Amino acid sequence: MKRLNITIPERIAEAMEIYGNKSQFITEAVIEKISRDKKKKLDDLPIEGYKNEYSPDKKINEEWETATIEGWPD
Prior knowledge:
The chain has helices at about 10-15, 20-70. The chain is mainly alpha-helical.
């Protein structure tokens, strides 16, 4: 175990008065937050990958579009 001295807003400290073991409550809250952040990061990976892959595809598509309509009458 590691001992930490933290500062929190007064209203949060007051809300925590109902919990007997504040250290356990804070530990569980931090674990939950870290888990949510990791899950969000994993959920965002496919989106970022798609965006990274989509960019070259978009450029190629624009090049083909230009080549395709070059000979068309206006």
